[in-house]
Write a sequence for this structure.
């Protein structure tokens, strides 16, 4: 059938209207192959790095393999140098020194590597009614009822007196045991289900089932607890007191998997914000293979989900100390470096979900497969706590993305006055850096198993690559 020629009005619409485009509707075989290959590697990263510590370890290994060297105080860096700054094994900055004078500004892409999860308290272990449990305090904004009755894995670090550290990961291998938060059977759930969602499971109800067998031959109180501690002592040499200096977290034990008959999506734990971290990291390493024009900085921050505080969060001076040290040793005016810098603050956005259309405003929402989402402002209720990027910087970013043929869209998180949220953008902007929010749309954000599109993931990679090539 011959193609119908377009009317004048149709042509004019194409020219004048802003429409989001589904990047998969006319995807070539070649780019689909690229998308799929990239997604396979992303899934490996997701499974290898479920916590910020594991993400830092992954990033260091990857950076070192590609010629990055650990940051040194007092060193005079020059164009082409590749540096990583390991902030306490929980956050990391990568720097590639560019050809231009650093006073012309650096290109910063920032994402976070912590995700919502369930942390152990410092005195976690107890026995009740023939079972042993861990007490927990959840980390980040979760719907608590989503975390019951699913297999959980235990990840983390125990720091012992005297300086020794033990890294743990139990529940990831098929032969490993998993852990579990019990829920009430529906037969007895009448009163529970009459509660509002936030009270179906209470904070102090997120207790982890970890054992049920008494210490051999022991019938006294706490014999199950004794058996658990004796197993842990045999395996790791620890006592109950050692939990005081431990950071142990429960995360979903599930692996990242393709979603849908067409395998166009990935469901996994912790897309927020590894779906931005991974594209930044891979784009930075790729860009480091030739000396870039501007100096490039990658920030993979910790503690975003709890407010970016602490010495590994985005509010920490550690980042500024590193950048200033580099500037001073290069003889650069650090204030000029900040003032002329550009930043993409990369964090996920809410993907428009037709099952909950009442909370979105469709003209200004991010849609699945329509590309990485640029968000001028975040915040809630009258743009409270927003960075709100300038019109001028938005135009600059449009140029960069369009020139590189990146599939991208704009979108806001939900309807006005529906709720909202923000991330680290304003913390970078307040350092006198041009900053805008960008990120991949996510379905079921903060659930144990979140969903993204492979095409949007790849468009994020292309966006950061284009930004690093500016
Ligand atoms: Mn996030
Ligand atoms: Mn989040």
């Amino acid at each position: 059938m011959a193609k119908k020629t377009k009317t004048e009005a149709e042509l004019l619409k194409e020219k004048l209207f802003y429409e989001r485009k589904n990047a998969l509707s006319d995807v070539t075989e070649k780019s689909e192959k690229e998308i799929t290959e990239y997604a396979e590697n992303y899934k490996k990263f997701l499974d290898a790095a479920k916590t910020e510590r594991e993400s830092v370890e992954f990033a260091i290994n990857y950076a070192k393999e590609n010629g990055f060297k650990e940051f040194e105080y007092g060193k005079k860096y020059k164009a082409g140098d590749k540096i990583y700054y390991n902030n306490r094994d929980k956050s990391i900055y990568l720097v590639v020194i560019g050809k231009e004078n650093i006073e012309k500004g650096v290109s910063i892409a920032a994402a976070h590597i912590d995700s919502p999860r369930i942390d152990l308290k410092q005195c976690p272990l107890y026995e009740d009614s023939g079972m042993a449990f861990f007490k927990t305090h959840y980390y980040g904004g979760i719907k608590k009822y989503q975390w019951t009755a699913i297999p959980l894995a235990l990840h983390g670090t125990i720091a012992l007196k005297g300086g020794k550290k033990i890294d743990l990961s139990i529940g990831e291998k098929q032969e490993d045991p998993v852990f579990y938060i019990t829920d009430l059977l529906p037969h007895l759930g009448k009163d529970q289900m009459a509660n509002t969602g936030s009270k179906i499971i209470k904070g102090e109800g997120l207790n982890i089932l970890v054992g049920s067998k008494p210490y051999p031959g022991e019938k006294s109180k706490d014999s199950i607890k004794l058996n658990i501690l004796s197993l842990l002592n045999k395996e790791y040499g620890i006592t109950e007191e050692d939990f005081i200096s431990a950071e142990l977290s429960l995360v979903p034990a599930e692996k990242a998997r393709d979603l849908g008959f067409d395998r166009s999506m990935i469901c996994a734990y912790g897309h927020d914000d590894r779906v931005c971290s991974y594209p930044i990291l891979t784009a930075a390493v790729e860009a480091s293979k030739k000396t870039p024009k501007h100096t490039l900085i990658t920030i993979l921050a910790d503690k975003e989900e709890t407010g970016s505080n602490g010495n590994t969060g985005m509010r920490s001076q550690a980042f500024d100390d590193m950048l200033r040290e580099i500037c001073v040793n290069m003889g650069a005016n650090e204030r000029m470096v900040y003032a002329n810098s550009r930043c993409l603050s990369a964090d996920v956005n809410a993907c428009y979900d037709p099952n909950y259309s009442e909370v979105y405003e469709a003209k200004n929402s991010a849609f699945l497969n329509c590309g990485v989402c640029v968000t001028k402002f975040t915040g809630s209720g009258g743009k409270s706590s927003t960075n709100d990027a300038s019109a001028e910087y938005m135009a600059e970013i449009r140029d960069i993305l369009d020139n590189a043929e990146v599939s991208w869209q704009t979108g806001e998180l939900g309807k006005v006055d529906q709720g909202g949220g923000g991330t680290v953008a304003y913390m970078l902007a307040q350092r006198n850096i041009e900053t805008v929010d960008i990120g991949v749309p996510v379905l079921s954000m903060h659930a144990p198993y979140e969903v993204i599109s492979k095409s949007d993931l790849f468009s994020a990679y292309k966006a950061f690559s284009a930004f690093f090539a500016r």
Notes: The chain has a mean pLDDT of 97.
